[in-house]
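REVIEWER CHECKLIST
Item 1: Sequence provided? yes
Item 2: Single chain? yes
Item 3: Sequence as submitted:
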Amino acid sequence: MKFSFASKSSRSYLIFFARPIVLLAKSGHRMLRTPYMILLILFFLCQIDCKDRSKGVDDPFWREESLKIAGEICKKIANCGKETGAFIGLELSHTQLAENRLQEASCHEHHRNTNVYKLIGDNPDQIRSLTRDCYKEIIEMGCSDLVDKKYKKIVACELMGRIQRGESLE
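Item 4: Structure as written out by the authors:
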């Protein structure tokens, strides 16, 4: 089994920049004896080894399911807000903002930027499971329980909130 230190694009990048360094080394250039060379080498190593890990897992089935879940939760909260009069005490601009935010299109737009939607975290299967469990609990809750924020006491919802904030579950 052949060990690969870098991807093909990283290797071509490394070869492109390594050649001038080799030529400088052969010429005995003074720059190689300075701290700048150390920084330059660290930069190249970081370019090879560092990856953008914030992209998450690309799972189109999950993304569709999680958008549906988010939309239904927003719909439930909006309906409960109207039923219980939770928006009555707010200023008109705040009420409109809350109602606009809870519309399905706006809810989906906001959800697309979350860690749960992108499956960013320790374990994508665990994220899916926690999201489904939290969703079931919220949908079964009564409006008075939602207004009283009892969803914060549900373990699955609390752990899902930690994922959304980028915290580790351990």
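Item 5: Key structural point noted by reviewer: Residues 1-10 have pLDDT under 50 and may be disordered.
Item 6: Recommendation: ____
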